[in-house]
Amino acid sequence: MENTYRYRLSRLVRTQSSEIFLIWDEDRRIGQLDLHYAHDTIHATLVLEADLPVNTEEELLSQIDEDIVSSYLPSFDREDFLVTVFRGEEISSYTDSSGALDDIEDEHFGEDDDDDDGGLRGRRDR
User: Pairing with 31, which of 52, 60, 88, 113 sits 20 to 30 Å away (CA)?
Assistant: First the structure.
């Protein structure tokens, strides 16, 4: 029986050897996946922002393997797919970029982000 419940995986970054995805359950972000392709071994870090039962976590890992990892290197061609799963929450975000981020609403960034020293600017959700 095929799994009918699927998460939405939105790619943020893709390079020759890595990818970053946000994982969504409808309109709620539940995690982030960082993949690193090292020849015949794929390394993944999965940070879940929601508590998932073990069987649901395994279904998500199967979806990630089917939808993303196997398109890079099918299971019969790879040596291993190593996944480390963490439970966490986003508490802040930083950037040293200028330009478009200045247009983001103030609620996303703290008051001391207006400095022009070229350093990192960020927001803290707490």
Answer: 113
